[in-house]
Amino acid sequence: MAGCSIVSSASIFTLFLLFGFSSAKEHLVGGKIDAWKIPSSEANSLNKWAERSRFQVGDHLVWKYDGRKDSVLEVDKEDYGNCSTLNPMKQYNDGITKVELDRPGAFYFISGAKGHCKKGQKLIVVVMSPRGGRWSAGFSPAPSPAPSGEFEGPAVAPSSDATVLKSGLAMALGVVAMSVGCFLM
């Protein structure tokens, strides 16, 4: 029986390790406090930062900026491309904005300050499909390429977690099976 309590403790610890690291993250937009501004060059655009980042459903974007001089507008793809501030889906001007990425797909953000979007103060974030969601084994379909002549957003990060997910699931099931065997003794 002593062996069973050790296996049971190990089971709980292993399951905690496997599933405890999948919590949501907060991403400071641009990786720094003063990033919500007109970029000095294309290489310093927020979309370059977004291309290097990986976003999951449940993550949050956090902007820190002067709310008296600027705002963050969540817009659709068309308004993003046209830099239109007339009909935002959501508008934030509190200076410390936190937005939950609550679904897979693209999110479009532009500055609400006059002329800033046209000078490059905008952001596209692509959120990956959740693991174990409607796409089997952590795979999601590739996005359709944008028609030529349209603006170009960040590339979608590849999802290569399928092997890790399968082996982790197999390990978790093995540990659970060992635990159940101990409880049946």
What does this structure look like?
- By secondary structure, the chain is of the alpha/beta class.
- The strands form 2 sheets. A 5-stranded mixed sheet has the order 2-8-7-4-5. A 3-stranded mixed sheet has the order 1-3-6, with no helix packed on it.
- The longest helix is centred in the C-terminal third of the chain and has 23 residues.
- It is globular, with a radius of gyration of 22 Å.
Supply the helix-strand structural class: alpha/beta
Largest sheet: 5 strands, mixed
Percent strand equals 15-25%
Q: Which blocks of ≥5 consecutive residues have pLDDT under 50?
A: 10-21, 133-151, 155-169
Which descriptors would you attach to this protein?
185 residues; alpha/beta; five-stranded mixed β-sheet; 4 helices
Brief summary:
The chain has 185 residues and is of the alpha/beta class.
Please write out the topology:
Layout: H1 2-20, E1 26-28, H2 46-52, E2 55-56, E3 60-64, E4 72-75, H3 77-82, E5 90-92, E6 96-100, E7 105-111, E8 122-128, H4 162-184
Helix pairs in contact: 1-4
